[in-house]
Specification:
This protein is mainly α. It is built from four helices and no strands.
């Protein structure tokens, strides 16, 4: 994943967490991807948490783009 792509994605997610959850940047960065996904998931829906391996594959895929 390019630094610019990661930075842009992180900035958007941080802004979403700030608006929707009232999180400050430190709270955003302390959360795991699974925690963020669980909190933002619509009520009544279930989903598989992102595993460390999933995240590594996504990052590897971004590096190849």
């Amino acid at each position: 994943m390019s630094e610019a792509c990661f930075a842009n994605s992180a900035l958007r997610l941080n802004a979403l967490a700030a608006r929707a959850l009232g999180w400050r940047p430190g709270e955003f960065w302390a959360a795991t991807p699974a925690e963020l996904a669980t909190i933002l998931m619509p009520p009544g829906q279930s989903g598989d948490a992102v595993t460390r391996d999933d995240l590594a594959r996504m990052m590897e895929h971004q590096d190849n783009d």
